[in-house]
Structures are given as C-alpha cells and as structure tokens.
Amino acid sequence: MKLYDFELSGNCYKVRLFLSFLQLEWERELVALGTQNKTPEFLALNPVGLVPVLQDGETVLWDSQAILVYLARRYDRSERWLPLDACGLSQVTAWLSLASNEIGAGPAGIRRIHLFGREEDESKGRALTEKVFGVLESRLASHPWLVGDHPTVADVACYPYLALSPDGKFDTSPYPAVLAWFSRIQALPGYLALPGR
After folding, report:
1. Residue 54: phi, psi to the nearest 5?
2. Smaller CB count within 10 Å for the chain: N or C?
C-alpha cells in the first residue's frame, strides 16, 4: 500500500492518522506540489492533481474522505469505524460532507491564507470557521464522539483542520467541548502528532 502524501496537508494527515489507528503497513511517496502533482504520471493516478492518493494493489483512490471509507470497509476488523446501519452511516456521511465543504472552506481556508500565503476571502473563511466550531461545540457538549459512543471515520475526517486552525490565527479556547474532543482523539492508541508539530 502506498500513500502519495504532502506533509503539511491536513487531508493527507487524516489518512496517515487512520492508517496508524488501523495499524496498517504502508509506503510513503512525498509529492512536490506545484510540479510533481502536475505530471502525466501523477494525473494518471488522480486526474484532478491533488493529494492524498492511496494505491492499494490495483486499487487507486483519491479524496481523503473516500480513502477513509475504503480503509474502514476494507481493513477495520472491529467494524466500528464505519457503521453499516442506515442511521449511523447517514450521520457519518453528513460529517464527511462537512469535512469536505465547510471545514475545507473555513478552518482549512484560513490556514491556507496564513501558512501558505494563498489569496482567499479571510473574513468569509473566519465566519465559516466560527460557524463550524459552533456546530461541533453543540454536538460535542453532549456526546463524546460525532457519531455514536466511540470514534468513527467522522471524527478522523473532521479533526485535522479543526485542530490545525490556530495556524490560521483562530482562537479555539472558547470551545471547551471541542478541545476535550481533541484530547480524546489524541489519547487513542496509534495517534500521530499533527503536521508541523
């Protein structure tokens, strides 16, 4: 199994984190963004030219959320990381959507501005970040995990860019339930340090 990876990417990190939680062996291929990800060889793996990409034998997957789902279904012997019942699966899917959309535009967006100098609408990203943290705070104030009574791929998908939001100069201290959730994730066996830490 090979992961095409970029160290500071939160989306790549969530895949590395989940591989570690599942105690899987894998090979790492670092990708030079801006050059290597635009080559014909890389675009044959992922036509949109983004990382992460996971190659597992003949299977090639891109998009971090899709990779998490694949790994959970393919390798999670406990069958706890991705519920199969209609309610649990739909709830996980909703959080995966939040990770791709609101978290990707809010917390990840303001991080891109401050860490990588990207030109994005910071006021819009900051407002969306506050909204996302409010949603998570409300959920986690009365639940230990995003779905059910144990961690799922929903937690793995949402955690990285929220925990990395201080890179975007966002103050997380007004969100004690979210901070407690960070601590629960960091206490899980196999936890990996956040990128750049």
Report:
1. -115, 130
2. C
Chain-centre distance for alpha carbon 29: 19
pTM: 0.96
Statement: 2-75 belongs to CATH 3.40.50.12160: no
What are the φ and ψ backbone dihedral angles of 175, each rounded to 5 degrees?
A: -125, 75
Query: Cβ distance 132 to 102 under 8 Å?
Result: yes
CA 57, CA 153: separation in Å to the nearest integer? Answer: 22
Q: Is 155 helix (H, G, I), strand (E, B) or coil?
A: helix
Q: Give the DSSP H/E element, type plus range, for residue 27.
A: strand 27-30
* Fold classification of 86-186 (topology level): Glutathione S-transferase Yfyf (Class Pi); Chain A, domain 2 (1.20.1050)
CA distance 13 to 22: 14
Q: What is the pLDDT of residues 47-64, one digit of tens each?
A: 999 999 999 999 999 999
- Please list, in sequence order, all residues whose beta carbon lies within 8 angstroms of the beta carbon of residue 47, skipping any fewer than 6 positions away: none
CA atoms within 13 A on the CB side of 32: 3
